[in-house]
Amino acid sequence: MKAPGKLAALSLAALLVATACGGGGGGGAPAASGPKPLRMTVWTTTEAHLKLFDEIAEEYRKTHPDVGKITFDPIPFESYTTTLTTQIAGGKAPDLAWILESSAPDFVSSGALAPLKSKIENVSELIPTATRLWEKDGELYAYPFSTSPFGVFVNNDLVKAAGQKTPRELIKAGQWNWERAAAVNAAAAAKSGKSGLVIVNFDYKAWDNLATVWGGWGAKAWSDDGATCAFNGPEMTEAMTFLHKSIFTDKAMPGPGTTADFFAGDATMAVAQISRAALLKDATFDWDLVALPAGPKGPYAVIGQAGIGVLKKSPNAGPAADFLAYFTSTANSAKLAAYFPPPRRSQLTADTLAKTNPLLKPDQLQQVVIDGIAKGVVKPSHTGQAELAQTVRAALDPLWKPGADVKAVLDGVCAKIQPMLGA
Amino acid sequence: MSRRVRLTLYGLLCVLCVPFVFPTWWMVTSSVKPISDVFAFPPALLPRRWDLSPYRQVFELQPFTQQYVNSLYIAALVTVGTMAVAAMAGYAFARIRFPGQNALFVLVLIGLLIPSEVTIVPLFQMFHGAGLSDTHWPLILVPVLGAPSVLATFIMRQFFIALPGELEEAARVDGLGRFGTFYRVALPLARPALGAVAIFTFLHSWNLYLEPIVYLSTPSRFTLPQALTQFVDNYGWPLWNVQLAAATMTALPILVVFVLAQRQFIEGLAHTGLKG
Amino acid sequence: MAVTQLTRRAAGRADHPPPGRARRFWTIARRDALVGYLFVAPQLAGSALFVLLPLGLVGWYSLQEWNVLAGTFEFVGGDNYAKLLADANLRSVLTASALFSAGLVVLNLSLALTLAVLLNQRLRGTTLFRTLFFSPVLVSLVAWTIVWQFLLQKDGGVNGLLAVAGVEGPNWLRGEATAMLSVVVVQVIKNVGLNMVLFLAALQGVPRQLYEAAQLDGAGAWRRFRSVTVPLISPTILLTSIITVVGSLQVFAQIAVLTQGGPGTSTTVLVYYLYQQAFQFRHFGYGATLSVLLFVIVAALTLLQWRLRRRWVFHES
What we know:
B: MetI-like fold; C: mainly alpha; MetI-like fold
């Protein structure tokens, strides 16, 4: 249901191509003498976030008179990457930019970002699962300022109404796994007439969100080196068979073409990033947040990520990197933790996080956030992600109907994308 | 016409118009429903509960008034400009003889064949190179002079071709020059065709979506169709009821104007000369 | 149009300079020609700058390979055209385009003509119906597609209406056939009003006496429609069909919102594919190559229709 945004993104991409052609790869604005202004593109429009950024920037300028005004330039999330790339290619590159995980491989491998390892304060403290995506040949190209695990939001009212055990009770009993989760959701959906478990943002298109399920089977989209398709592996086949059964046989998940907004009370459970907890501020039902259920391969976690990088093309790349070091220092990282789970080990404690996440209880933070970040894997990403994502989306479509031949569909996915992975 | 035939015809028309009316009806009524009722199944024809807060949010989240003004003034300029360009070109191609006329006409007609998607990128480059990206100039200049105005020129030419020559003859005998003849005689006669061109052009500009998104990046310069897709929450998720409220506000005034002026409107179209 | 010919000839004669003034340079004909050039100048300049030049540039880009992030732009000759010929997706893309355009043109024109004939009856209230059928033309395309996206959901308004009639509707946008049908119908309903009004105007131009004469000859309603109405409005049919065909090949936003080319690639038409390649996947050179292909197809189809007009368009001079 994000299509209008998608449309905007598509069309904005026209801008990208156009400017890139016209710009011919020139640098940013000529470096003026005097204080150098810095610009960082971000996708948040939340006032509290921007206010905090401005405070940190003001503080920095007190000790760095050579740096001029520091602006944080919000770009709508849906069209973020295309707009950013446009600006880079059109010669209007920002000095610093937030980068989404899905475009991380493209940015890191293209050489568009400046190396940061020597700049970042206490770099050894960063958690490896958080930095892996942003590294190449031992160098770090972006600071993973927001590492947000996926968890399961639960509408306890709907679960109890169906006479089922809540996930929290199941966790205590050591029974919180996908089989039980599916059973609970099927029962709750049947009882309430509402939906079962929703994988937020998936909508039978954004398949990378399914990593939150297939991770439990140890499945992968492609091999770790990115060269071999793994969609038709036995783990993926089992995971997808489970998904298919949950959707079409057990009715534990809403089928394609059905909209169910968990945060409005229309669904029993939702797999989403913890930042969505903010949407439950005024919730009228009893809700909970728990870790992802265990799969046949045991417990696991999936994280979403965002990094901040310095654009190599920026004429102010040096000062920009210095500012980034300040922005992400241990002290400021603690402030940012109010909204963005930090990658610094010393700050990933339930106490620190609880101060700034009033909606979440300490044990929720421990189980979902801290444990999640420690062992989490990121959603699948690859160079040329946009084309791969689209190709997989089209090849997976035959799966989303009753009676589909799971193995055949997955073989079809690999037949389509293997040539692209090899390239 | 027998009573039975008449009733059948009415029945047929009523059934046929459901898919034409229902979407607009649904858009308007859903924009005043609470978001949970928007998704209710089966959809209710009338809102059971009212929630007008989306209409307030429209103005809080975007500089909607400014965007409305942008769309209106751009559409107005494009309409007037296109009428002038197309009337002159159409008249010349139809009524004036000059060497190379046919070849030039065919050249102009190429514009009719080009989907705007094909040339949008080089056009953007040109405007970006001229320092005119993120301004309204491309949204005005291209429609007035480029491919979109070709249909208007074509309509005007068809109209002027069908116009009896005697009136002009008389005017010229009276000593009016070519321009005088065009301005004082032909143009007033062309009012219906100009009306049709105005309608086509206004709607085209008002609905333009791809171009604004490509050229504009500052929210206060956005046009309405572009603004419609910007009503999203902090996670990029569409605020459906706000989008519907904004969509209603873009559609309703046009619908009202149409209903009030529809006689002139349709009669204008009827005189375009498109009927052959 | 025969009248037109006469008047133009008459106008032409009048333009011949009177004998006595033939020596002067600024003859009426020359002055006329100057005014003619001045009148078409804005349109010509616009065409050159905003149509022909960009078109040439697109042709040039189709010979390049261009990497956005790395910022490289290099000449690759016919590589993109070789890629086009070898593109495994091309067949399904062209099939989808052909299905979409054919479906759209047939449905649009026949519905427009049907509505126009119905509204051309001597019936009270036709003005109201005319307004209703025309109203979607006035709703912005973006709003229209957003609304239909809701309506075509499995639990959406369309199936809600069908349920009232006791029919369980399909999951419109998820089945290959129904998805294509949906995008065609949504587009037809949006725009059929324009063609309807044009047909209505043409129908009102058909002299009643012709029908009366045909009726006297014993022709039934269908026969009158085929032998009187259709030939007399055939120039309108030609024009609307050209505009509709060209328009059908440009439909992009509806598909992007409603199906995003799916399910599978069943609704990935040429323009949408061009978008994906150039803008989404950043294969800009290849996108330009697809633009060239699109232009060739549109031009060929239009030329074909223009040629065919001699066969069936009545009283076209």
